[in-house]
Amino acid sequence: MQRKSKDLLWWPFTQHNLVPVDCVTVIDSRCGESFSAYKVKDNKMMMIPQFDACASWWTQGPDSKLQIELARDMGYAAARYGHVMFPENAHEPALRCAELLLGGIGKDWASRVYYSDNGSTAIEIALKMAFRKFSLDRGILLDSDKSITNERNIQLKVLALKGSYHGDTLGAMEAQAPSAYTSFLQQPWYSGRGLFLDPPTVFIRNGTCALSLPQSIQNCHLSPGDKCFPSLADVFCKSRDSSAAADLYSTYISQQLSEYSVSSNIEHIAALIIEPVIQGAGGMHMIDPLFQRVLVHECRDRKIPVIFDEVFTGFWRLGVESASELLGCLPDVACYAKLMTGGIVPLAATVTTEAVFEAFKSDSKLTALLHGHSYTAHAMGCSAAVKAIQWFRDPSTNSNLDFDRMKLKELWDGTLVNQLSSLPNVKRVVSLGTLCAIELQAEGSDAGYASLYARSLIQQLREEDDIYVRPLGNVIYLMCGPCTTRDVCTEQLSKVYHRISHFNPIH
What keywords are assigned to this protein (predicted)? Predict the structure, then answer.
C-alpha cells in the first residue's frame, strides 16, 4: 500500500518528492482520537494506535462513543433517505439541524441557514450574501426590482487580514492576502480583491501572554500593561475596550479605510471577512481579540457587512461553541463546517440574518441566490450534525463541558504550556480550547510554510512517540476533540515537550 500510494495517488498540500515510501502512514481504522496504523517494529508488522494530533485536518471531534452514535444515525439516514434534492423540499434532518444552528451559534442574531458541502463553498456563499446586502444598502441596486445600475463601473472588495485563509476555491482565495497559497504557481488568476490589514497578535512566551504589534501600527503610546497580560482571560476582557490599545486600533483602521476610499471612486469595501481569534492555515496565529472587535465596530459604523469564517474555529475548537463569544461581537454572516458533523462527513452551513435574506427576495428568480450543489443538505450530513451539536453541548456526554459557563474546561496543562514557551528554541505558544500550537525559533528559509526545519522532530514524534503530527512549516500543533480527556492531552503534550527540549535540527 505504501508503494501503490506513491504510484497512484496525488495528495493535497504535499510535495511527493519529500515523502519517502517508508514514511507513508498506512491506516487500518480509527477509534476516537487515534488511528490504528501499520508499523514495522522489531521486524514485525504491527498495528499501533497513533494519536491524531491534526484532528484529521481540524475536523474531528468524536470520542469512541460518539463515533459509534454518528455511524448509527448516518446509517439510518442513508437507509431512509438515500439522497434527495433540496430546493423547495424539506426533510427532518435538515430542519432539526437548522433549528440547532439558529438556537446555538446563531442565537439572538441569525434567522436563516444556507447549506453547502464544505468550508470554501460556504465562504463563497457568504461573500455573495454580503455583497448583495451592501449593494442594496448603498443604492447600487434599485430596491424595487434589484436591477443593476452602473455595473461596469463598480468593483466590490473585501476588508480582510494578512495571514488569513478562507479556502481553496477561486473566489475564496481572492478574499485573502497574498501568500504561498495564492502565488502564481498555485493560483495564476489571483489578484487579491481587498484591503488587507496587518493584525496584532497575542502569544505566550516565557510564561507570559504578550501582544505583538506590526510595524504598520505605531505603539509609542502603549504602556507595558497594554502589551503584557497576566493570563489569557485578561486578553479577552471587555474592559480593554476603553484602553489606549483600542484607540490605537481605531485610529489605524479608520485611517486605512479612509485612504482606500479616497484612492478610488469605483472600488467599494463591501464586506469584512475574518477568522475570529485564530488564523489556522496562516500559522496558528492568535489575533488580538480587541483588534477584531474594534474592526467589527468600525465596519458597523460604515454599514459594511461582517462575515465570520468559523469553518476552523467553530463548534468548540477554541473552547466555546462560537468564537463570537470570545470576541464579544456578532457577525451578519457566519460560515461553519468541519466539527459541525463531528468531522465524520462533509457538510457546511452559512448562517445569516433576516435582513440579508430579504436582500435576495423579489418576484424574479434572477435575484435569488443562484448557488448550490447536488448534495445540498444531504440527510446523512444533517443527521450527523444534529447528533454532534447536541453531544458536544451536553455535559452528560461531554465531560469537558463547564455547563455553567458553557465553555470547555482547560485541556492543556498550564504548567507544561508555560514550560514549553520558555524553551530557548520556542518562539511562541498559542493554547486555546482544543488547540496548542508551538512555533519553533527559526530564521530565513527555516521559517514559514515551506520550512523543513522540523522534519526530524516530526519523524520522531510519529515513529517513536506515536503522535501523528503534520506541521505548518516551523509551527507544530496538537489538536484534540471537544471530548478528549485532559489526561490524554497532557500525555501528548509531555511527549512534545520532551522532544522539543532535546531538538537539534540537522541541515
Answer: Aminotransferase, Pyridoxal phosphate, Transferase
C-beta separation of 40 from 457 below 8 A: no
CATH topology of domain 2-61+410-501: Aspartate Aminotransferase, domain 1 (3.90.1150)
CA angle 56, 58, 64 (to 5 degrees): 60
24 vs 7: CA distance, rounded Å: 12
Phi, psi of 480 (to 5 degrees): -115, -175
CATH of domain 74-139+165-393: 3.40.640.10
Residue type at 438 in one-letter notation: I
Cα separation values, 12 from 16, 34, 424, Å = 10, 21, 33
Q: SS3 for 79?
A: helix
Query: Is residue 9 classed exposed, middle or buried when 0-12, 13-18 and 19+ CB atoms within 10 A define those classes?
Result: exposed
Distance, in Å, from the CA atom of 352 to the CA atom of 331, rounded to the nearest integer, reads 8
b/e code 439-461 from CB counts within 10 Å (16+ = b): bbebeeebbbbebbbbeebbebb
For 146-191, how does the pLDDT look when each residue is reduced to its tens digit (9 = 90+)?
555 555 578 999 999 999 999 999 999 999 999 999 999 999 999 9
SS (H, E, C) 102-142: HHCCCCCCCCEEEEECCHHHHHHHHHHHHHHHHHHHCCCEC
- Among residues 122, 103, 168, the alpha carbon closest in space to that of 307 is found at 122
Type and span of the H or E element at 307: strand 306-309
Domain map of the chain by residue range? 2-61+410-501, 74-139+165-393
Spell out the residues 6+ positions from residue 413 whose beta carbon is closer than 8 angstroms to its own.
486, 489, 490, 493
Phi first, then psi: what are they for 111, rounded to 5°? -135, -5
**Contact, 202 vs 210, CB < 8 A?**
yes
Q: By percentage, how much of the chain surpasses pLDDT 90? A: 90
Give the mean pLDDT of 395-413. 96
Cell readout for 123 is 465562504
- Is residue 383 a contact partner of residue 74, using CB atoms and an 8 Å limit? yes
| CA-based nearest residue to 453, from 464, 445, 461, 465 | 445
Q: Is 404 helix (H, G, I), strand (E, B) or coil?
A: coil
Under DSSP, the state recorded for 344 is: S
CA distances to 117, 121, 391, 483 from 70, in Å: 18, 24, 10, 14
One-letter identity of residue 38: Y
Helix (H, G, I), strand (E, B) or coil at 170: helix
